[in-house]
Design goal:
The complex is a heterodimer. Chain A is an alpha/beta fold. Chain A contains nine helices and ten strands. The chains are: A alpha/beta, B mainly alpha.
């Protein structure tokens, strides 16, 4: 499998605190790659480094063979990386469809074409019936799906999902897992941060475990959860 | 083109808009000179409010210095007319160019270096103040003693040189307002309109969706400042005198933004209805006080303050959004996407 995203020796410090320390990994094209780890492990910082919100202090990030570290978030998105935010950021005064429309307009300059594209995405995320509601009036699970819809509308090759399942009920998690699996089958590569282990185990093809900013394990999910270092730092001894 | 423009506008909204416009076109036939003067002032504020609304209402950047663009537009065309006999319609593109140039400089300084929110507003005030003080000492346009346009015979209308009776000025500002309104309607439905609204709502999220926010904020300030300049041209040729102390005064900028705030920031019709309400009511109040023999200086400003207070407290989004809901003037749902249609 070809590598879509390559993170090589990336570090990022926040005045003395090493949030991400010399992390390297490759995301193969077509995979669902999960990043897990306890709170404060540096997962979101790693995401922000990939998405262009932060620049690494050292190391490099390459997407489809081209360096993307140091690019601005909008440039990274135009290269083909979509992202969601852990704390959702809808455009509250705009309708649900207009939120997604903003994303769709990136690849379709004609508003009518973009609207058709936005409606397709809304149907996939079960938001079509709510398309005329103000985004600010949505419930949290709907807002999480709107985050995904908006990012998808930019037609990314790689989708970064920052805890889109946190706070969802089990049935809602199953539904979004189904949607993501279907998108993946159609060729979308997904890199996700997730705490919901049940979802990670069922969806991820590869897992990377971060602890204190460093990668302590990487591999297929079934192998990773058995590694003693992972059990000790993250899952807790009782998981054994 | 027209179909694209109107496809999501409810039919009865078009009818109402048509009736409203017909009333405005017919107004000079019925109105006396005083009423016509008031209507001219109302439309002037509707126009400038629409132009300001592009920057603040659509793109979310608060300018408190739009008097700068009015003043530059006014002084440019007036100076060209006084010194070289160049008519206002030829002077207008020059005025727009100068206005846009100043807007772009302010925008670049602010948006390139992350000046936003209140700090951006202060920057816009600062530039208007620079202009006010600078023009006070700008002898080519007579500095603080004021620039006067030759007042011609008002018996005939000379549209080319904008010399004539109030009715002519009325139709000029009405035409400008209609053009600006339609232009904004198009902007809101275009890619740039959506991108502006995304930036207004959440700039970080907008960037993550691939929007070059710097570029689109620059486009917003360029269009807004450019649209404001013709109001200055009108101002110069209607009032025939320009004083830096008045033209660039911060109160002029505040008056411009009252209409959109009261009518509804970010809405198409808000600046128009806001201008009608606030200017109309203020004039009514003054007239009423004059008739009842009470002469209270500054009553208009107190009235503006009270209006602002009431609207901000009771209708924080302005008068237009609830009124539009009441009249069912919201966006029409796209029929082609309904099942079975």
């Amino acid at each position: 499998m070809t590598t879509l995203l390559e993170v090589a020796g990336v570090s990022r410090n926040f005045s003395g605190l090493r949030a991400v320390a010399d992390v390297s990994f490759r995301v193969p094209e077509g995979s669902i790659f999960a990043v897990i780890g306890p709170n404060g492990a540096g997962k979101t910082t790693l995401f922000n480094l990939i998405a262009g919100m932060l620049a690494p202090n050292s190391g490099s990030i390459a997407f489809q063979g081209g360096r993307i570290d140091g690019l601005t978030p909008d440039e990274v998105c135009r290269r083909g990386i979509g992202r969601t935010f852990q704390i959702v950021r809808p455009f509250p005064a705009l309708s649900v469809e207009d939120n997604v429309m903003v994303g769709a307009l990136l690849r379709h300059a004609d508003p009518r074409q973009a609207m058709r594209r936005a409606h397709e995405v809304l149907r996939r995320l079960d938001l079509f019936d709510k398309r005329l509601q103000e985004a600010g009036s949505l419930t949290l699970p709907d807002r999480k799906r709107l985050e995904v819809a908006r990012a998808l509308a930019t037609e990314p090759k790689l989708l970064l999902l920052d805890e889109v399942m946190a706070g969802l009920r089990p049935t809602e998690i199953d539904r979004i897992v189904d949607i993501l699996k279907q998108l993946n089958r159609e060729g979308l590569t997904i890199l996700l941060i997730e705490h919901v282990m049940r979802a990670v185990m069922s969806i991820a093809t590869r897992v990377l475990v971060l602890h204190h900013g460093a990668a302590i394990a990487e591999g297929p999910p079934a192998d990773v959860v058995r590694e003693p270092a992972v059990v000790q730092s993250y899952l807790g001894a009782e998981a054994l | 083109m027209m179909a694209l423009l109107l496809h999501d506008v409810p039919r009865h909204a078009l009818v109402l808009l048509g009736l409203f416009l017909a009333g405005l076109i017919a107004a000079p036939l019925l109105a006396n000179d005083y009423l016509l003067t008031v209507l001219i002032v109302i439309l002037y504020f509707a126009y400038t409010g629409i132009a300001w609304n592009v920057l603040m209402g659509f793109a979310g950047q608060l300018s408190l210095g739009h008097a700068l663009y009015v003043g530059l537009g006014a002084y440019t065309t007036a100076a060209l007319y006084v010194h070289f006999g160049i008519g206002p319609w030829i002077g207008m593109p020059v005025a727009i160019l100068i206005s846009v140039a100043s807007g772009v400089v302010i925008g670049f300084l602010a948006f390139r270096f992350g000046v936003a929110g209140v700090y951006f507003a202060i920057l816009t005030i600062a530039f208007a103040e620079f202009a006010r003080i600078g023009f006070d000492h700008f002898s080519w346009v007579q500095g603080s003693s004021g620039l006067f346009l030759p007042v011609a015979n008002r018996a005939t209308n000379d549209l080319i040189n904008l010399r004539g009776k109030p009715a002519m000025f009325y139709y000029v500002i009405l035409a400008l307002t209609v053009v600006a309104f339609v232009f904004c309607h198009m902007l809101l439905r275009s890619r740039v309109g959506y991108f502006w609204q995304a930036i207004r709502e959440d700039e970080v999220a907008a960037r993550s969706l691939g929007i070059n926010t710097f570029r689109y904020k620059m486009i917003a300030i360029a269009i807004s400042s450019g649209m404001t300049a013709p109001a200055g041209v009108f101002y110069a040729f209607y009032y025939n005198n320009l004083f830096p102390e008045q033209t660039f005064f911060i109160l002029r900028s505040i008056e411009i933004i009252l209409g959109p705030i009261i009518g509804g920031i970010g809405t198409l019709f808000g600046p128009v209805i806001g201008a009608f309400l606030i200017t109309g009511l203020a004039e009514l109040l003054e007239e009423f006080l004059r008739i009842s023999g009470l002469d209270i200086p500054g009553v208009k400003r107190v009235f503006y303050g009270v209006c602002l207070l009431v609207v901000v407290m009771i209708l924080p989004h302005g008068i237009w959004p609830p009124l539009a809901r009441l009249l069912r003037l919201g966006k029409r749902k796209d029929k082609q996407d309904e099942p079975g249609a």
